[in-house]
Amino acid sequence: MIVGDEPRSWLEESKTPAKKAAVKGKAAAPDAPTQPVQLPGDLEGLRNWLLTSDAIGAPESGRLDTIGDPASGLMILVDMPDRGDAEAGQLLSGDTGLLFDRMLAAIGRDRASTYIATLSPARITGGAIDENSLEGLARIARHHVSLAQPERLLVMGDAPSRVFCGSSLNESRGSQYNFNHDGGTVSVTATFHPRFLLQQPRLKAQSWKDLQMMTEGMTA
């Protein structure tokens, strides 16, 4: 109020008590730091945790398990399930999945001879991972790769590229990166997600170059 019944000094400091007052005779205790979630130490345990934990920044419904063989030597990481994957009961279904299968066939692989995982086990509302969610999912994904210990890691799309290459997909393509973890080092290659290639078919030739670069020297 500009006008009041009682006179007051407008220049006097407020005497309102602090929001967190110290207990008499003791200093106020600082807020306890948030402890990171303890992740399972084995691959099977992590996969089960991804499907059930409420500590993941992803919807609890519609979560999908990984696909393929962790011992195959090739791990492929995408951002999240596509629209329709939950109903189909598997990752990379529909037209996106058909193109993905053709990409695998072009390098002599199929779903059984690769290990396919996601940053988020469920599709996030809006179809995009924001920066706050990406930080937590990145920690889980790095742990996931360290447990799977693939020879090569293929990241498809912008979010996985930022996690394992340190920059956007456009900046990461054309080079190979090394991801160091407790179990060793993984060679990382970035390329387009099949869903994006369906929207931009002219980029398929560039994606083929990425796949060729990745497979150089890779054991089948």
Describe the protein's architecture and organization.
- With 220 residues, the chain is an alpha/beta fold.
- The protein has one domain (51-215): Uracil-DNA Glycosylase, subunit E (3-Layer(aba) Sandwich), CATH 3.40.470.
- The chain has eight helices and six strands, in the order H-E-E-H-H-E-H-E-H-H-E-E-H-H.
- The chain has helices spanning 43-52, 85-88, 94-106, 131-148, 158-165, 169-172, 194-199, 204-215, and strands at residues 67-68, 74-78, 115-118, 152-156, 176-181, 184-191.
- Helix 4 packs across helix 5.
- It is globular and about 45 Å long.
Descriptors:
220 residues; alpha/beta; Uracil-DNA Glycosylase, subunit E; 6-stranded mixed β-sheet; 6 strands; 34% helix; 14% strand; globular; disordered N terminus
Set out the fold topology.
Blueprint: H1 43-52, E1 67-68, E2 74-78, H2 85-88, H3 94-106, E3 115-118, H4 131-148, E4 152-156, H5 158-165, H6 169-172, E5 176-181, E6 184-191, H7 194-199, H8 204-215
Supply the number of helical segments. 8
Q: What is the helix/strand order?
A: HEEHHEHEHHEEHH
Silhouette? globular
Q: Characterize the main sheet.
A: 6 strands, mixed
State Rg: 24 Å
Q: How many structural domains are formed by the residues?
A: 1
Per CATH, the superfamily is Uracil-DNA glycosylase-like domain
**Average pLDDT for all residues:** 86
Query: What is the distance, rounded to the nearest whole angstrom, between the alpha carbons of the first and last residues?
Result: 77 Å
CATH fold node name: Uracil-DNA Glycosylase, subunit E
CATH architecture: 3-Layer(aba) Sandwich
Helix content class = 25-40%
Which residues sit in consecutive blocks of at least 5 with pLDDT less than 50?
Answer: 1-6, 10-33
Structural class: alpha/beta
Beta-strand fraction estimate? 5-15%
Top-tier CATH class? Alpha Beta
